[in-house]
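Escalated from tier 1: adenosine-5'-diphosphate holo job.
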Amino acid sequence: MPPMKDFNALDVSADLMKALVRMGISVPTQIQQETIPPMMAGRDIIGIAPTGTGKTIAFGIPMLEYISLTETRVQELVIAPTRELALQIEQELTDLGHFIPQIRIAALYGGQPMAKQINQLKRRPQIVVATPGRLLDMVNRGHVHLDHVHTMVIDEADEMLKMGFVKDVTRIIELVPANRQLVMFSATTNSDVMTISWKYQQEPVEITVEATKENRPQITQYTMVVGREEKMAALQYLLDSDEYDRVMVFVNTKFMTQRVCDRLKKQGYQADALHGDIRQSQRTRIMNDFKRGKFPVLIATDVAARGIDVDDVEAVINYDLPNENEYYLHRIGRTGRARKHGVSFTMLTFQETVRMDEILKYMQTKPTPLHFDEAKILCRADGEAFFTAV
Ligand code: ADP
Ligand code: MG
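Tier 2 regenerated the structure:
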């Protein structure tokens, strides 16, 4: 690993330095140290780094450094797989640009009336953050032009391509000028990501950040084998420990997400749910309330929660084992972000233990198994109670 540099040494300008201080950020992460110089030099980049390593700021700083404030056409474009992620990137870029009031950013994503976003476009943003479908819709209707984009960032490329956006993403790349800078970030590599890179990037700088101890979010993982009908009680047991002020619970289906939420509320817990059947305006409100700590328990499906970055999620509870193996890391990555410490609990039915082993096959750290004893106390393997206060 190259020697530690601070943001000053990375040639970050004074306004952005002030914004970083305001955001409480002082030491660049490895991906930031390795991305900022070549991206500022205009190189194409393919960056592979685990979640929670600070990729948004890694591309956000060079983006903001290279904006022409007098140019009234879209110069920089970020595409992201989900609206939540697009909003989050918009927020982080807005925070970074706090001391550059002339910067205008538009976020374009589905599920919100076009009119509102068209108004944002009328303000002549220099930056657009978008999901692929809505962006193409806006382009086709002539509300946005991409022919002056000099920097394009594809965030969470693996997720995006897995979600079936290959065609949309290639269309968008082909709509921006051929000599643009193309920067791709991904948590993993897959053949679609590599194909896009080969096809569209010129001598890209490859940056890989391994999931080493320092980079990897600090997450202590636990598993607990419970019967299907015992899951609700187990969930309440974890919440009743009063150890965690902010908890995300992952459930596989929209239906069960709502049901778990309703049952918790009925029992007097402050909880809310995020899933695809909830209106976008409400989803945004729920997300923000959860971020601000207005309620402690958020129950979500994988799609609704993808890419969401909430600081201080103290515990992630997998009510179900995810349908896709790689979602496991995405889920537990909601906690332990940016060098904080987090915990995850995964409930497993006996049959699911086999699949859990499969998920863990490529992970360096293994969860600690917990179980409920005869008195229904959650215990470690040696029989010692897990929550000492309970
Ligand atoms: P990724 O996209 O790699 O999953 P994010 O860009 O969402 O990660 O960053 C995760 C969290 O870490 C965010 O809350 C962000 O503000 C914070 N963060 C980013 N860079 C730093 C840093 N250098 N020091 C401390 N926190 C950081
Ligand atoms: Mg990210």
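Residues 73 and 126 are 6 Å apart (CA to CA).
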